Amino acid sequence: MLIPQPQQGTLSDIATHKLAQSIVTGELAQGQKLNEAELAERFGMGRGPLREALRHLEGMRLVKRTPNAGARVVILDRKTLSDLYAVREALEGMACRIAASQMSDEDIAQLGALLDRHETQIEKQGGKVYAQSEGDLDFHYQIARGSRNQMLMDLLGSEQYQLLRMCRYRTSRNAERTKPALSQHRQIVDALANRDGELAELLMRRHIQGAWRSISEMIDKEEQAK
Amino acid sequence: MLIPQPQQGTLSDIATHKLAQSIVTGELAQGQKLNEAELAERFGMGRGPLREALRHLEGMRLVKRTPNAGARVVILDRKTLSDLYAVREALEGMACRIAASQMSDEDIAQLGALLDRHETQIEKQGGKVYAQSEGDLDFHYQIARGSRNQMLMDLLGSEQYQLLRMCRYRTSRNAERTKPALSQHRQIVDALANRDGELAELLMRRHIQGAWRSISEMIDKEEQAK
DNA sequence: TTTAGTCACTTTGTCGACAATCGGAGTTTC
DNA sequence: GAAACTCCGATTGTCGACAAAGTGACTAAA
Questions:
Q1: In terms of DSSP bridges, do strands A70-73 and B63-66 run parallel, antiparallel, or are they unpaired?
Q2: Distance (Å) from the C-alpha of residue A86 to the closest C-alpha of chain B?
Q3: Which residues of B touch A13 (CB under 8 A)?
Q4: Are A60 and A82 contained in the same domain?
Q5: Is A110 in the same domain as A189?
Q6: Using an 8 Å Cβ cutoff, are A14 and A43 in contact?
Q7: How confident is the model at residue B4 (pLDDT cuts 50, 70, 90)?
Q8: Exposure of B9 by Cβ count < 10 A (0-12 exposed, 13-18 middle, 19+ buried)?
Q9: Protein CA at A2 to nucleotide C1' at D12, angstroms
Q10: ipTM, 2 dp
Q11: Tens of pLDDT, residues A167-190
Q12: Is residue B2, in this structure, part of any structural domain at all?
């Protein structure tokens, strides 16, 4: 669902998807040079479609191109992530506010059920946080969908925010935040159920601010370590 | 400044720029089919660079592609514009809040000077609203820059928001809104000067909501007319 | 030893041609 | 007369090859 199309459409789309996946999961290291000919051969296609895919990825901010010097995987430094979380706070807050008036009762109930699944998942396997992480993204994406705002959905969901997934893969081991995060999610769903858009926005913004603090501390530790 | 690069770099970049300009100004009508071969010849280049440009424009949401059926200029319907203004409200509000703490005193002074220039411009020529319209964009972009958030700048400025310029070209004749808009701009600059981020955000959000109401009414009239 | 210059190689940018797919006109059949 | 089928033209998707720009190593001089 978060991964657009598995393996259909034009070669360019396939390449876009495969590269995005490789970048997000860290298979392609940050800052790594992307050689057109090499990648084209690995994917079994010509350089034309691959170049189009790189352009597409550039639009997603997953790669950075410089004329006559090729493409490199973006580098998620502290500043970039900080900027990302500020944008998230604004967009997801807005999504929450609108969703409170736009989602159907059934939508909200399903959101609650999603959280139930997360809860059992967390209790069963404290270690495998990855699932929660992707599940968490799912929660946020469902709210974006709830806003019925196609642009918000594009920005938060399928297209732009692969960066966020990339960040998650890097810092997915903060298991201690899964429980407060789930609790915050529940609060948000409650606010949505009460049709209180302002509160839902406030809670979402706090939730994202908290997530950023957590990530920020982790980066500090990493930088301290080396 | 709002138009990335005039005529340098790769052919693909040139094509991107020219097409974006043509779409924004309405030279290419909404929903118009974009024939690759024809455009390539008109720009004096092969189809390769042009296809890359179309991919880029797709990322900017200026064109919509469907596999095996080519690209068409996007259609700015009421829903799309409504979505756009909601996103703007969230992003520019956030930009304002951050800018209040990040802009230098000099930056803010320059922003005030920009408004002075707008004022004299409006008084001189009530008719030529276009200049104000682009100038207004400039005001908003300067605040995005003031946030020192590269992602906000990208989203609001150079890249994504060509859609907004497109909208302006369509509905640039609401001269009656230039004066209240300028007054609202002044209020925002005052809030920034006082380093009151919360107020600046509030004012900006209201300003954008007001702009949307104005545009929305205009669309209503248009639809009524036909 | 360091630095400047040159040269060859690698990689990107671009083009033209071929294959696959889609839309529509014309024809056939019920 | 209307619906479905077929075929043809047009357009998109893809590939291989060539030209241009950048990168790095090697040589030679200070």
A1: unpaired
A2: 8
A3: 67
A4: no
A5: yes
A6: yes
A7: very low
A8: middle
A9: 28
A10: 0.85
A11: 777 766 555 677 788 899 999 999
A12: no
